[in-house]
Amino acid sequence: MNVAVIGIGRIGLPLAAAIASKGHRVFGCDIDAERVAAVNRGENPIPDEAGLSELLPALAASHALVATTDTATAVAQCDTVLFAVAVDVDGEGRADLEMLFGACDAVAKGLRPGTLCIFDTTLPVGTTRAQLAPRLESGGLVLGRDLFVAFSPERLLMGRVIEDLTKYPKVVGGIDRESGARAAAFYREVFGGEVYELANAETAELSKLSEGAYRDLNIALANELARVADAYGVDIAEVIRAANSQPYSHIHTPGTGVGGHCIPVYPHFLLQGRGPSSLSALGREVNDAMPAYAAARVDALLGGLAGKRVLILGLTFRPNVAVTPHTNAVDLLREFTARGAVVRGHDALLSEDGVRDLGFEPAPAPLAGYDVAVLHSYHRAYAALDWPAIAPLVLDARNALDRAALEAAGVRYVGIGRPATPD
């Protein structure tokens, strides 16, 4: 089988490699010529993606995976086209579909009769049928007759995409029954795992948004409970551990908000839709307020932040993956700076230019002599940090550190919803 994967970024490239490793010929299509050239040399542009470095050299050498900027020519050789183009929100909080529209227009020029197109990215409900499928018809094929279109959301975690491809059931929904059946058959053949074939594309689109909204609201609840715990001087970690011992309670971990391509974005897709979305709006409001709340707690502990030296550690949106979109680290920078602090940033996964791109002044080596250290993403590389040398006070923005170990080393600890070590 010949497959085109449109967009070989954080999701698309490991997806393409995984399919190629199953014995299929895959064309990875992208507008980034440098990335295309690197992939064709067998070089991995995403070194923190588990398993990818092991697969790419052999796949490139055998031409089982060929990267190209000529999307139409690649598509013309393929039976199936997968769209892995990221969709973010624009300045008004609505889905920004421009890159996906461009990809559809390029694909439409190369489509041959009988091709199956699957959108493997998260979208507002109704987008596949109303906006994307019609663009694919612009090449002359007719939907339901010689062109088949389905939606199948990615259910993957960056850093372990290849593993996750077979860990969870694949969800698919077509714009018609034949499209859905073909998409389900494709995933069963390629990955061999469980496939949920839903009634239509809209059902599949809403299922993905439901996953994201659940997680965002659950984290918002955890954050609200953390603030209640602070008001009463109790430890939210103990509260959640007790509550979750009941099988119907699944409260997540509080922190300074939610970052990345997914959870802070997808609720906005519900907000722009037809149905009610007041809870999703409230969840966004609660989570977006957490960086300011965390800075205010430190401000109160120190009797003011003016002139204080603050180090923010781990600037990516989550540990051990060099991805920064919507990272709350920049929100922490804003809030601490607004209170007069002198802030520096450090990330074990980013270059100094990468740190500066986020608006931070990079922290010089050695990491020492600060008034406050804020742990935002607990990378593996930070496991052996000399916390007493870094700062006398640590704000654990993700409740990820060993509080007892820090206190035993003489460091004052404060977490989100966790009492501060007495001064």
Quick description:
This protein has helices spanning 12-20, 33-40, 52-61, 71-75, 98-108, 127-136, 161-164, 177-191, 201-232, 236-243, 266-271, 278-288, 290-302, 329-338, 352-357, 387-390, 403-408; strands spanning 2-6, 25-29, 65-68, 80-83, 88-89, 95-96, 115-119, 147-151, 170-174, 195-197, 309-313, 342-346, 372-375, 393-396, 412-415. By secondary structure, the chain is α/β, with parallel strands linked by helices.
What count of structural domains? 2
* Terminal residue distance: 66 Å
> How can the largest sheet be summarized?
8 strands, mixed
CATH topology of the largest domain: Rossmann fold
Rough outline: globular
For the record, the CATH class of the largest domain is Alpha Beta
- Which ranges are low-confidence, i.e. pLDDT below 50, for 5 or more consecutive residues? none
How large is the share of residues in beta strands?
5-15%
CATH architecture of the largest domain: 3-Layer(aba) Sandwich
Q: Supply Rg.
A: 23 Å
How large is the count of helical segments?
17
Task: Explain what the structure shows.
The protein is built from 17 helices and 15 strands. Helix 1 (12-20) crosses helix 3, helix 9 packs across helix 12 and helix 13 packs across helix 14. It has helices at 12-20, 33-40, 52-61, 71-75, 98-108, 127-136, 161-164, 177-191, 201-232, 236-243, 266-271, 278-288, 290-302, 329-338, 352-357, 387-390, 403-408, and strands spanning 2-6, 25-29, 65-68, 80-83, 88-89, 95-96, 115-119, 147-151, 170-174, 195-197, 309-313, 342-346, 372-375, 393-396, 412-415. 40% of the residues lie in helices and 15% in strands. It has an eight-stranded mixed beta sheet, sandwiched between helices. Strands 12-11-13-14-15 form a five-stranded parallel beta sheet. It has two domains: 2-199, NAD(P)-binding Rossmann-like Domain (Rossmann fold), CATH 3.40.50; 209-423, Rossmann fold. The model has no long low-confidence stretch (mean pLDDT 95). It has 423 residues and is α/β, with parallel strands linked by helices.
